[in-house]
Write a structure and sequence with these properties.
This protein is an all-alpha fold. The chain has helices spanning 41-50, 56-85, 91-114, 120-128, 134-159, 161-171, 181-204, 208-212, 216-232, 255-269; strands at 4-5, 12-13. It has a single domain (56-269), classed as Glycerol uptake facilitator protein (Up-down Bundle), CATH 1.20.1080. Helices cover 63% and strands 1% of the residues. The chain has a two-stranded antiparallel ribbon. The radius of gyration is 20 Å and the shape is globular. It comes from Rhynchosporium agropyri.
């Protein structure tokens, strides 16, 4: 859909395609999805699956999410590498504070054009809650995953194969001698639930705009990420070298998993 321009005030109004209930921009939470005329579950399901695929605006929003995810993951990976190279004894403090600014800024920048998810966990959760349509959710998930993989390729190209292996994907690692897989899974699942619970409570719930206003939501979500990152970095011995590097399912730390997978894949395939 084309962007609308107010003739009376001469200002740009966001496209209807960027307005959906799961957006981080409270002023854009309008449900523009089509409803099935029949109440039969077959018709309702068909309408849910097929609605939105022909809307070029949603594809544009997904592309913006791809670009934003690439930039976020690349910047986050570089920050992880820099913090690790300083061999700081207090990495949790640096990671926590950095994440507050990192996520808040990217949500502020992307909320008007794509909703500001920049994270598959948020997108999938809003799909399950009925706040994000099926077509938008699928396109966002693909765009976010591709963006994280692209960031891994850029990091690999920036540092070269040998150094990229030494940096271990910017911190996504698990030494099973220090922490068992089941323990790490429990930590990831519990902290992700806490992150989603707080993110919905302060930013994604459509009623939040009336309580916190249009500007506080992204900042509060940034604080949520900062706290969850601070609580998990350094849980086991080592930071970016051995042990457990911290929660990987929070908004920008989640990218470490895809970042590492894409990084190792490129190292093998790209001589």
């Amino acid at each position: 859909m084309k962007d609308l321009i107010s003739k009376s005030q001469g200002r740009l109004i966001p496209s209807q395609a960027t307005q959906f209930p799961g957006s981080f921009a409270p002023d854009l939470r309008r449900d523009t999805r089509k409803l099935a005329k029949s109440k039969k579950w077959e018709q309702v399901f068909y309408q849910y699956i097929t609605d939105g695929w022909d809307d070029i605006g949603i594809w544009r929003s997904a592309f913006i999410d791809f670009v934003g995810e690439t930039a976020l993951c690349y910047l986050s990976g570089m920050i992880d590498i820099v913090i690790g190279n300083f061999h700081s004894t207090q990495p949790a403090a640096y990671v926590g504070v950095t994440n507050i600014f990192l996520i808040s800024l990217f949500i502020f920048a992307m909320a008007p054009s794509s909703g500001g998810h920049v994270n598959p966990v948020i997108t999938f959760a809003t799909m399950m809650a009925g706040l994000t349509g099926f077509s938008r959710g699928i396109l966002y998930l693909i765009a976010q995953t591709a963006g994280a993989a692209t960031a891994g390729a850029l990091i690999r190209g920036s540092f070269g194969g040998r150094l990229a292996i030494e940096l271990q994907g910017g911190g996504c690692l698990l030494d099973t001698k220090v922490l068992e897989v089941s323990q790490a899974y429990l930590i990831e699942s519990t902290m992700t639930f806490i992150m989603l619970f707080l993110a919905f409570g302060v930013g994604l719930d459509p009623r939040c705009g009336q309580v916190f206003g249009p500007k506080m939501g992204p900042l509060l979500v940034g604080f949520v990420l900062g706290l969850t990152a601070f609580a998990t970095v350094g849980i086991a011995e080592g930071f970016l070298t051995n042990g457990y590097g911290g929660l990987d399912l929070t908004p920008e730390l989640w990218r470490k998993r895809v970042f590492t997978i894409s990084l190792l894949h490129i190292i093998v395939k790209w001589p």
